[in-house]
Amino acid sequence: MRTAVDTNVFSALLSGDPDSAPEARIALGEAAGKGTLLAAPPVYAELVAGRDSEVVDNLFSDKGIVVHWNLRADVWRTAGVRYGAYARDRRRQRGDNGPRRILADFLIGAHAFHLANALLTSDTRIYGTYFADLKVISPQNPSHNPGGN
Fold this sequence. Notes:
Elements: E1 2-5, H1 7-15, H2 20-34, E2 36-39, H3 41-49, H4 53-63, E3 66-67, H5 73-92, H6 103-115, E4 118-120, H7 124-130, E5 136-137
Parallel strand pairs: 1-2, 1-4, 2-3, 4-5
């Protein structure tokens, strides 16, 4: 099994927050016990934007996390199509629709969709909506699957 991991899980782990860090550690351990942990390039970039790249490199090395530096064309296409659907939906909605999403979120989802069996993320709503055909795992409830499979 290949599990892609979203930035928010690594951020929770690195934060040391007493509420979210243990959940992230347990969820990462469970996913690693089932197979390979993967990260999309935007995950790496988002992490090094907030901390020293050596910290991120050491974490990825220690956990055996594989970064797919060269994303295939189908990943880029899927990210664009699903981001487009999100943008159209957002324009049609009125009021507070939660946080605004960026293309990087959809690259992370498309990477998981094409190159992994599941996505481990705290942000289950956006991925459950726009990647309903992807198995989405939450660190808060790793046995619950709000997405597809």
